[in-house]
Design goal:
Layout (H helix, E strand, L loop, with lengths): L2 H13 L6 H11 L5 H16 L10 H17 L6 H7 L13 H7 L5 E5 L4 H8 L2 E3 L8 E4 L9 H4 L3 E3 L2 H10 L6 E4 L6 H9 L5 E6 L2 H14 L4 E5 L12 E7 L20 H19 L2 E11 L8 H10 L3 E3 L14 E4 L9 E8 L27
Parallel strand pairs: 5-6, 5-8, 6-7, 8-9
Antiparallel strand pairs: 1-3, 1-4, 2-3, 9-12, 10-12, 11-12
Length: about 400
């Protein structure tokens, strides 16, 4: 590795920690090194993520530069022939020990977490084949509802392509695209994306709604809402409004919605192949706090769902505390919401109200999605007129005087 690249990678790793995610430190450093060629930036990024992905295999007493070089070599060996690494060592070393009380770490999952992530694109509706032809190095996810999801294996800087600048596609993980499909919004409906972030799922909802109806996007961070504004402008999304909301009991918008999406903050365990530093900074106490926050978000947002409307809970994690336990707690607090089975986006499984997407499936993020429908209020039975007697009533004699 180029000495300058190794020095920058070592600095990023050394300065990363629980309060400073490695991906954020990396972005800051690469932004400050404007003279770096793009291929060198890519080498630095791969070195940083390789270090955290293979950290448990390294001699931690060695110099940081030597550790990073060893991690890059491990990543290369694994890419060439994953069979050099046994199931047992991958299961034992790929994740922190505390996670095993929350999920079963299978060999397939461990191997997926050690594999460098797949890049997925979402073309505008009906434009997947055309986009794949123009960009090259693309493979469609399949036919049907996700025909516009494309796996990209090329080396272009996609953000600089004319197609991206024109809003012809978004970079969005395949399993995140499944969330929008499961929401199934219709043109003219009203939706609320409660934790909108930078808007990937909101943009998908708008496409599915053909830019008709209205979507509210809320988030606690003003900088995310600013990025959402830029993304919607590029994508020519006109049917959205945004507002700040910290998740508290005072709802940021009036009225009720046909659908509410709670894409809640979580431990992001399902993205640990993409962001391996988070494996070693998340803690059981984080898990407990996040699960409690997720339950409260669902209960609060439930009041904004119309009778007959839909509630969708999505998290990019697989821990029991943040998935089935949260869903069970919500159903206990809100019994007027009934599970709503929907078809699995890729087929081959029966319809279900709780759907799992694993890292070993298609190289996507691990995700859990639960779906409910709010009960309609009971209607009063129709009144029935009493039968009429056709004969006149008998004459009644006046009282005697």
């Amino acid at each position: 590795m180029d000495p300058r690249a190794l020095k920058i990678a070592s600095s990023v790793v050394s300065r990363s920690g629980p309060g400073r995610p490695a991906d954020a430190v990396l972005r800051e450093d690469l932004r400050s090194q404007r003279s770096l060629p793009r291929d060198v930036s890519r080498v630095i990024s791969r070195a940083v993520f390789s270090y955290f992905r293979w950290r448990q295999w390294l001699d931690r007493s060695a110099k940081m530069g030597d550790q990073i070089m060893a991690a890059v070599e491990l990543a290369s060996r694994y890419a060439r022939d994953p069979r050099q690494f046994t199931d047992e060592e991958l299961v034992a070393k790929s994740l922190p020990d505390w996670i095993r009380s929350e999920i079963e770490v299978t060999p397939a999952m461990a191997r997926a977490l050690q594999t460098e992530p797949v890049l997925w694109l979402r073309a505008r509706p009906g434009r997947g084949p055309e986009l794949a032809s123009r960009l090259g190095d693309c493979m469609a996810a399949g036919e049907g509802p996700l025909a516009d999801a494309l796996r990209y294996d090329g080396s272009l800087d996609l953000f600089r392509t004319p197609e991206f600048q024109a809003g012809d596609f978004e970079i969005q993980n395949i399993h995140s695209q499944c969330v929008g499909w499961l929401c199934a919004p219709k043109p003219g409906e009203s939706w609320w994306d409660t934790c909108v972030g930078e808007g990937g799922k909101l943009l998908h909802l708008s496409d599915l709604m053909r830019n008709k109806g209205q979507i509210w996007g809320t988030d606690r961070a003003a900088w995310r809402l600013q990025r959402l504004k830029r993304r919607t402008a590029r994508a020519k999304v006109f049917n959205y409004r945004s507002a700040s909301w910290d998740g508290g009991p005072a709802l940021p918008v009036q009225g009720r919605f046909d659908g509410v999406l709670v894409d809640a903050p979580c431990t992001n365990m399902g993205t640990w192949h993409r962001n391996p530093h988070a494996r070693w900074t998340a803690t059981p106490s984080d898990l407990k706090e996040l699960a409690a926050a997720q339950i409260q978000l669902l209960i609060t947002a439930a009041s904004a769902v119309k009778p007959g409307g839909r509630m969708i809970y999505a998290v990019c994690t697989l821990t029991r505390s943040e998935t089935v336990d949260v869903a069970a707690a919500f159903e206990k607090h809100c019994p007027d919401f009934a599970p709503m089975p929907l078809p699995y986006p890729f087929g081959g499984q029966p319809p279900a109200a709780q759907q799992w997407f694993l890292p070993q499936d298609r190289g996507g993020n691990g995700m859990f999605v639960a779906l409910w429908r709010k009960a309609q209020p009971p209607t009063a039975p129709p009144t029935q007129d009493l039968p009429q007697d056709p004969s006149p009533p008998p004459a009644v004699a006046p009282p005697a005087s």
